[in-house]
Each structure stands twice: as structure tokens, then as C-alpha cells.
Amino acid sequence: MNTHLKHALPAWTWFAGLTLVFVILYAPILSALVFSFSVDRFPSLDITRFSTKWYAQVFADARMLEALKNSLAIALSTALVATTLGFAAAYADFRFRFFGQRMVLALALLTPTVPIAVLSLAMLAFFSRIGLSGTVGSIIVAHVVVATPFAMAICRLRLEQLPREFETAAQNLGATPGQALRLIVLPHAAPAIGAAALIAFAVSLDEYAIAWFVGGLEQTVPVTVLNTLQGQVDPTIHVIGTLAFAATLSMVFAAQMLLLRSTKSHKNKEVSP
Amino acid sequence: MSVLSAKVRLRRRAWFALWAAPLPIWFALFFMGPMLLLIAMSFWSVQNYRLTPDFSLSAWSYVLSLDFLWSTFWRSYGLSLISAALVSLLAFPASYAMAFLITPARRLTFLGLALAPFFTSYLVRIYSLQVFLGEGGVLPQLFHSVGLSGASLLNSYTALFLGHATLTLPVVLVLQTLALGNVDRTEMSAAVNLGARPQHVLRHIILPAARPGLSLGVLFAFLLSYAEFVSATYLGGGVFQTLPILLTDLIRGGQQWPRAAVVSLLMMAALMLTSLVTVAWAYRQKGN
Amino acid sequence: MTQPLLELHNLNKSYGTFEAVKDIDLTVDTGEFLAIMGPSGCGKTTTLRMMAGLEEPTRGDIRLEGQQINDLPVWQRETPLVWQNLALFPYMTVRENVEFGLRMKKVPGPERQQRCAEWLERLGIAGFADRNVAKLSGGQRQRVALARSLVLQPKVLLLDEPLSALDAHMSIRMQGELKRLQRELGITFVYVTHSHSEAFSLADRVVIMNAGRIEQLGTPQDIFLRPKSRFVAQFVGGISLFSGMLKTTREGKVGIDSADGLLQIADPASVQTGTKCDLAVRADRINVTTQPGWGTNEVPCTLMSEEFAGAVVNLHLETAAGTGIVAQLQQRDLERLSARAGQQVYASWHPEDGVLLGVTALKAAA
């Protein structure tokens, strides 16, 4: 900021606000981390001793492992399908002009504003009528609907940075549309596709409402957490939380790194011979 | 009249459809399908404990005549609106710091850190808050040690607000920071050059220019808080009966599908109306 | 009769109700350097893109060596394009960029490498072969773009304002190289530009387009000396225009009866009296004096402004009737003239320097 532009309040007040916000955001995450290693059942400031006994308990819990297996299978499938759908739609929106283009965009991007409780209810009703409720497949199908908008937005934003001529220039030099896509568009979009997959995976891994409504007896990790929330204090939630934070945070950061690096390298990349 | 042969046209269309069709098909089947079913279901009836396709207004007239539905509706709406406004105020200094007080390279890192929690275990963070605020939790303990009451902070609006903030802060921070970051620096310099004091620049240049982004921040905070039911249940402790809670209760309570559908549609209507009004206001231009 | 290389027949392109290109008929010969020129939005780039197959014509035919190629997809046409922003592939080295087209055409490895090396050498970029294209200077990037297209040994090379990204100095250097390359290779160049200097100094023939139509097609000299319409005259610039009825006086003088008096012309053979037409006089043929009595066509006017353009000066004058006149003088002539803005001066020229617009067409019709 230029020196002649002064702020309405001294700098420290704004920074205090920044600190406060980050405390609110990260305190729950840090506390889960700390208490997951405390031997005490009731989390409090005077921690008796640190241990990994709750971790051992979680990994010995067959129900939890089953939920974890479900969660991973669902998140993986969701990431795959959502990224494919999202990239295809982003590419279509980037490459072609067609009737109803804005509607498709609106449809995909307005989905996240539908309250998750309403969406879950609609999904449950729908899947029960077609006899799919209570299956892992129905959770995947629903999670794809929730995760695709994110995947599409990420891919679309990245494609926007690709000058439109590149693809036609490749075709002008003899590349078929398929070759131009593979040789010009995909290398450019690769980081975004990776990021989209990671975000879709994270969204699915973290989603509880639809999984709870639609999944029936097939529990995912967040659903077991939700069920535990209703009961008494259970330190194993801190363990699950810590593990989940570690997993999703690293995925989200990996996605952000991918996107940032690609934006930078676009300008100045030296290719060694 | 076209100069291209039918074969060429067909091949082109097929290639186009390969990319353009999958998402609309998936969303038509698995998003529009369920949503339309929800609308249809609000007109169905329950006969002998069985849900029967019908065209009946009984669910509508039943739900709309419930006094506690309307009180819940307005409580839900009001609480989320207050939370949205408070979260926006809470986020503003932080966004201002990110937009104006740190370098652009650092800004990206901070934005990444701010956004990351949005995708991570919301439930566990709510649980953390629960044990933080609950009886014998970290905060009451701290308060007790400085001589205040050490009572549980749960089942209060403060607890509910913290839950809402946990959910919505990341989105609000990102929207606000982007909006403030895009304010034209030359305009600000021009205002200073014409004798504006820092507070005038903030009020007459920065805030109006960032209005669309700031309003969208409020809107998203509202949408998310309004739809939220975990905080309301486990932090608000059922003191604050909200529409989503009502909805989940209706479903778990048995065969009240048509009534639940009506409540859902009411929620959707309120959301859409609020979004339209906010967006129209956010992008309103001064003058013609 | 030899087969023309590229033919456009009755070519039309509309976007909705907007007609970008209207009824273009154009024949490009083998080995010719053709420039298409016009203001932005005149349809020149659309025409070029239709030649490359990047846009489909709404109506009409495109033929390459007599074969109709409307249906041929872009990637099967052999009409490489040098793009305005060059469109070099950023994830590839210089060599990979140049080899791209050969790879797509499945040219076997050794031949591909040899051809690529040959062209890198020829355009003086062999030293950068393994660099990333983002690391090159403007002129080097320009050469990569040329090599990438020319390595395919096309019959025709399409160029869309290829020099617009370069600074003035580099642009002039590249113009020379382009011209030399085209001569040496004998390849047909179709060159779209909005720059007069590029079109006039490079091309064998120039097409001037306006609002989707061809206004004039001819050699640079033709267009400069004998503009066919007001539009061309104004677009080429440095030309003063007068309009009026063609008239033959009792003394047998022929000229146009304009608001600024009778302006004589030299070539009465091409004239049909009574038609309304425009007279064009080039700026360097107009003489400016402070006293009357210098020449045949003499118009009193006011000196409005002077505009220095290197060694020459453009004087902007206005007649009593409001007609704008531009006269080009050498620096030293201006000093001799010693006139100031607002002063009364006289503009004059020889009858043979006045060109009637559209006269050739008139002749052809007669």
C-alpha cells in the first residue's frame, strides 16, 4: 500500500482482528489435536498425562474401521466422478457457445446454496422411491451432486487462463480436436484437475447430513461422529477429528499449492534441455 | 442453408455432446429429480401410514396453520440474519488487514489458511466447541479462575453464534478480502489528493466499491447459517428451535414426508427471496 | 490458364443478424503476397479465419487448387496461420513447438528432426531450440511462430497481424525478413493487417475491406494513386477530397463544380458530364503559397494546424466552404512559407494530379 494512503484505524487494530479470526478458526482444531493425546476422559486445562490410548482405541474399533472404509470408498468414487463431470462441463463452457449455457452454469453453481437438510430430505425421498436408499452407491451419487460444483469452478477458472487460440492453433497445425485437448488443454488444466479431485475428495469425506439421511446402516466416519455427538463425552472424537483434519487439511493445502504453483509457472518456467 | 455436409455436422455435435452433456444429465437425474419430487411430495397424502401420490393441499394447510411453525420460521430467519451480520463485522477487520496491510504474496497464504477449515470436519470442530464451552470446559474454567461464574456457556446465543462463525467465517473472509483487494488504489489516491481523510476514504471510496463482495459475504453467511442444524442442536441446545431441526425431527418422527416437504419448500422460498433481494441491492448502480 | 491457388466465391459470414463478411469474391495466385487491410471490424480477420477453416462460412465456397474445402476440418487443411498473439505453446520448448505440426502429420522421427533443424537454422533460432518459448524476446518468438508454420511446407501461409506485438523498430526489421522469405520460398502469403506501411511495402496486391465488403483490390500503387472510393481515399490517408458535378465549361475545360469553385482535371476521356463524383488530390501534390496566382486549381483557405512527421510537415487547411485539405511540405518549404495558424494561404495543384474516384469503374461500365 502506498505511503500516502493512511488507514482509518491504526494498523494494530486490523491485525488484532485478523488474529482473533484465526484463533476462532483454528482453536477448535488445535484443541482436538491436544486433547486427542490427553489420557483424561473429560477435556480440561489440567491435563494429567499425554498418551496415544484413544488412538489405539479408535483403531481397534471394528465399527469405526468399517466406517472409514466406507468413507474412503465413497470419497474416492466421488472425487473420480465429480472431477470428470466438472472438467467436462468446464471444458464445454470454455470451448463452445451453446443454447442453455448459462442455465447449466446456474444449475451447477446454485446447487451449493440449497440447504443441506433440504437436499438430504429430497435425496432420501428420491432414493427410497427408486429403491436405492441405504446403499453406498446412493451416497456416492448424492455426494457427486454436492462436490461437482466445486470441481467445475476450479477447472473453469483455470481454463480461463488458457488463451483460446492455443487449441485452435494446434488444430491449425494438424492436431485433431482430441489431440489438441490432450496436448494443449490437459497439460494446462492438470493442476486444476488435481486440485478439483482433492477438494471433491475432501468435501465427500467431510459430508455428514446426506450420508446420515441416505446411508441408512452404511455409516461413514462423519456419521459415526454425529451419532457420538448426541451421546456423552467421547475422547475418541478428538482422535477422529485430528486424523480427519490432518487428512483434509493436507489435501486442501495440496490443492492450493497445485493451483498457486501453476499460476506462477505459467509466466516463468525454464525448461531445461 | 449450411455449407457443411451432414456428416461433418454430426461428428461435431457428437464431440460437443461428449463434453456438454454429462453434467446436465447427472444433475437433471440426481438433483432436479429429487427437488421436483420434493415439490410433488408436498401435495401427496399419508393414508394408513402409507405415503400416497395425490393432489392434496392438506400438508400445506396443516403446516401453514401451525403457530409454532411460523415462530420457528421467523426465529430461524432472524437468528441467521443476526449471525450473518455479526460474522461479517467480525471478519471485516481481518479482511481489511489481508487486503491492505499485507503483501499480495502473503495474502494468498492467509486466504488459503482461512479457507482450508471450510472443507475440514465441521462436526469435530463443533464437538471441540462443545467441550470448550461446556461445564468444566476450557472457557468456563478460565472464567472461573479469574473469579467469574464457571457455569456452562452452552445453550446460549453466544454458543450458537460461535458455531455459525465456525461454519461461515472462511467463506466471508475470502469474499470480503477479494472485494477489498479489488478496490481501485488510484481512486483511493485520488480521494486523498482531493483532501479526504482516512475515515472518509474508508466510508466513501472503499466501502461503496467493495459493496457487492461485502453483501455477498453477508448473503453466504446467512445461507449457510440458515441451513445449519448441527450448531443449533448441539451448541444452542434446542433452546433455539430452527427450521432445519424441525425438518429433521419431522422425518425421524415417522411418515410426515408431505409436511417435511412443505417446510423444505418454505425454506427454499425464503432463501431465494433473500438471495434475489441481496444480489439486486449489491449490484445496484447509483444514477441511471 | 493456370489454376488459381485459393479462391473465395460469394463468401458470406453472419453472426446472428450481424453480417461480418458479405459476398467476397477473391482469387489468390501461387507465389503471391496478398495483403488484406481495413479498419477493425471490417471482416478481414474473419475472412482469413474462414480460409484456415476456423470459422464456417454462412454461404459460399472456399477452394484450394480447385478443390472445394468447406467441409474439410481445420486439422486436415494445410493452411497454417501465424497468430496475432503468436499462440506459441507455453508448455513446450522452441523445438517442440516447431515439431508440433510434423508430429501431428506423423512425419517419421529422423525426417522430422531434420526438417525442424533446417528451419530453426534458416530463421536464426537454432541457438534457442531447447529454451522455453516464454524466455524469448519478441523478435525470437515471431521467428518461432513463422518456423512452426513454414516447417509444414504449406502452399499458402496465413498471417493475422503478425507484427502487431513488436515495437516499431523490430517490426520494420521483420517486414524485411518476411518479404525476403516469401520471395525465396515462393509460398503464397495472405497477410491481414491494419497498418498501411506493412501492406503497401510488403504486398504484391492489396485488398481494402470495409463493412464486410471488398472496397478495392489492386497493387499498392494502384490503390495509392487511384483510390476507387471516398472510403479508400480516406483510409489510405493523406488525401484531400472534393465533391461536385462533372462539368465541361464553354472554353472546353473539364472539372468538377465543387463548393470551392471549378476544379479542373486532366483526363477528359474518362468523363461523363453531369455525374456527381469525388475528386482526390494527394497531400504531396498540393502546393501552399501565401500569395495567389500560382497554379490552375487554386483555393484560398485558412491554415488550421501543422503536424510534424519526421522530415515532412502536414498542413491542415480549411476552405471557406468548410472543405478540409491536407498538404504535405518539406521542412524547408515550410520555413520559406513562414505562415502561422489562422493565416490565409492558397492551396493549388496541377489538373493531372487530381484523381476522379471510381473512374475506372465508370470506364468499365461505359
From TrEMBL, chain A:
<comment type="similarity">
    <text>Belongs to the binding-protein-dependent transport system permease family. CysTW subfamily.</text>
</comment>
<feature type="transmembrane region" description="Helical">
    <location>
        <begin position="139"/>
        <end position="159"/>
    </location>
</feature>
<feature type="transmembrane region" description="Helical">
    <location>
        <begin position="237"/>
        <end position="260"/>
    </location>
</feature>
<dbReference type="GO" id="GO:0055085">
    <property type="term" value="P:transmembrane transport"/>
</dbReference>
<feature type="transmembrane region" description="Helical">
    <location>
        <begin position="104"/>
        <end position="127"/>
    </location>
</feature>
<keyword id="KW-0813">Transport</keyword>
<keyword id="KW-0472">Membrane</keyword>
<dbReference type="InterPro" id="IPR000515">
    <property type="entry name" value="MetI-like"/>
</dbReference>
<keyword id="KW-1133">Transmembrane helix</keyword>
<feature type="transmembrane region" description="Helical">
    <location>
        <begin position="12"/>
        <end position="35"/>
    </location>
</feature>
<feature type="transmembrane region" description="Helical">
    <location>
        <begin position="180"/>
        <end position="203"/>
    </location>
</feature>
<dbReference type="Pfam" id="PF00528">
    <property type="entry name" value="BPD_transp_1"/>
</dbReference>
<feature type="transmembrane region" description="Helical">
    <location>
        <begin position="72"/>
        <end position="92"/>
    </location>
</feature>
<dbReference type="InterPro" id="IPR051789">
    <property type="entry name" value="Bact_Polyamine_Transport"/>
</dbReference>
<feature type="domain" description="ABC transmembrane type-1">
    <location>
        <begin position="68"/>
        <end position="261"/>
    </location>
</feature>
Automatic annotation (TrEMBL), chain B:
<feature type="transmembrane region" description="Helical">
    <location>
        <begin position="157"/>
        <end position="180"/>
    </location>
</feature>
<feature type="transmembrane region" description="Helical">
    <location>
        <begin position="16"/>
        <end position="44"/>
    </location>
</feature>
<dbReference type="GO" id="GO:0055085">
    <property type="term" value="P:transmembrane transport"/>
</dbReference>
<keyword id="KW-0813">Transport</keyword>
<protein>
    <submittedName>
        <fullName>Binding-protein-dependent transport system inner membrane protein</fullName>
    </submittedName>
</protein>
<keyword id="KW-1133">Transmembrane helix</keyword>
<keyword id="KW-1003">Cell membrane</keyword>
<keyword id="KW-0472">Membrane</keyword>
<keyword id="KW-0812">Transmembrane</keyword>
<dbReference type="InterPro" id="IPR035906">
    <property type="entry name" value="MetI-like_sf"/>
</dbReference>
<feature type="transmembrane region" description="Helical">
    <location>
        <begin position="260"/>
        <end position="283"/>
    </location>
</feature>
<feature type="transmembrane region" description="Helical">
    <location>
        <begin position="77"/>
        <end position="101"/>
    </location>
</feature>
<dbReference type="GO" id="GO:0005886">
    <property type="term" value="C:plasma membrane"/>
</dbReference>
<dbReference type="InterPro" id="IPR000515">
    <property type="entry name" value="MetI-like"/>
</dbReference>
<feature type="transmembrane region" description="Helical">
    <location>
        <begin position="108"/>
        <end position="127"/>
    </location>
</feature>
From TrEMBL, chain C:
<dbReference type="GO" id="GO:0022857">
    <property type="term" value="F:transmembrane transporter activity"/>
</dbReference>
<dbReference type="GO" id="GO:0005524">
    <property type="term" value="F:ATP binding"/>
</dbReference>
<keyword id="KW-0067">ATP-binding</keyword>
<dbReference type="InterPro" id="IPR003439">
    <property type="entry name" value="ABC_transporter-like_ATP-bd"/>
</dbReference>
<dbReference type="InterPro" id="IPR017871">
    <property type="entry name" value="ABC_transporter-like_CS"/>
</dbReference>
<dbReference type="GO" id="GO:0015847">
    <property type="term" value="P:putrescine transport"/>
</dbReference>
<dbReference type="InterPro" id="IPR003593">
    <property type="entry name" value="AAA+_ATPase"/>
</dbReference>
<dbReference type="InterPro" id="IPR050093">
    <property type="entry name" value="ABC_SmlMolc_Importer"/>
</dbReference>
<dbReference type="GO" id="GO:0043190">
    <property type="term" value="C:ATP-binding cassette (ABC) transporter complex"/>
</dbReference>
<dbReference type="InterPro" id="IPR008995">
    <property type="entry name" value="Mo/tungstate-bd_C_term_dom"/>
</dbReference>
<dbReference type="InterPro" id="IPR027417">
    <property type="entry name" value="P-loop_NTPase"/>
</dbReference>
<dbReference type="Pfam" id="PF00005">
    <property type="entry name" value="ABC_tran"/>
</dbReference>
<feature type="domain" description="ABC transporter">
    <location>
        <begin position="6"/>
        <end position="236"/>
    </location>
</feature>
<keyword id="KW-0547">Nucleotide-binding</keyword>
<dbReference type="InterPro" id="IPR013611">
    <property type="entry name" value="Transp-assoc_OB_typ2"/>
</dbReference>
